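#help-structures

NK: newbie question. if I give both the sequence and a SMILES, will the prediction place the ligand too? trying with S-adenosylmethionine
OV: yes, paste both and it writes out the complex. here, I ran yours:
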Amino acid sequence: MKNDLLHAIYYWLRNFYWTIIRRDLQKGKSLLLASDEITQEEKNLLDKVSLDINRKDTMYAPGRAVAYLSVGLSAIRCINKALENLSHNLTVKSILDFPGGSGRVLRFLRVKFPEADITASELDLNALEFCKNSFNVNIFPSKIPLSDVVNPNRYDLIWCGSLFTHIDEKEAIELLKFFYDHLTDEGVCVFSTHGTLSIEWLEDVNKNPYGIPDDYQKKVLSEYYAKGYGYTDYVNEPGYGISAVTRQRLNEMAKSVGDWNEIVFLEHGWDNHQDVYAFSRQKAK
Ligand SMILES: C[S@@+](CC[C@H](N)C(=O)[O-])C[C@H]1O[C@@H](n2cnc3c(N)ncnc32)[C@H](O)[C@@H]1O
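OV: that's the protein plus ligand as structure tokens.
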């Protein structure tokens, strides 16, 4: 009897919580639709975008729906710039979102490219399954090391938001190679890194932008200044942490994996935070 009552209260509280989350996303969407900050084309995308949210989405915080949706729209803006800057007209028929997370950007790719064959990959299998069911995309699991990933396909557009930002230089070079190998000859790969703005934040003693201890911040900064790529693990998370890279070092790394060109560089172009690069085997305009 007592257990039944506790269960009923638990389910009521859980439903109440998710009603609030759904309202938060609806309200965020309405606020953005009414704002002057985004274009009519972006409002059209927002109008169609799915507001399905994964209960375990680590990128979404209750009350932060405007920020969550704005980050997705900002990614589309970066991708548009990359496509505009190619010397040829690219019809995007296939897309890889790597890592897709729980679909913060993927949901916008789905409505921006309704005809495209979209694939998401992730280490987090719960997030991957959520994306498959919510956004009608193909999925394949990622692996560590990347060389263990079995996927023979190539894509016209590869989007990688916020993964280079968390890995060391050796892994970043492997990731660039993976993208080079999975990009079509005409295709474009668009990805984000931490650059000069992140370095400014890390140097500011009044800020702790990435939640890491001071000596960890200093490690990133000293390696960044010494060799162009700085990295530290998060506390107790070997192999995953915070990185920052100069444009020069990033280009050297990209050139070391294949014959492709920087098409676009947008300094803190993704959501006024991360730098964005686009690379293609083709030339820029
Ligand atoms: C900061 S989140 C970004 C997720 C998504 N791109 C977004 O913007 O919402 C980083 C994601 O990278 C995933 N990840 C970390 N290492 C990975 C790897 N080697 N292969 C694929 N995904 C990885 C994590 O599981 C996490 O979901």
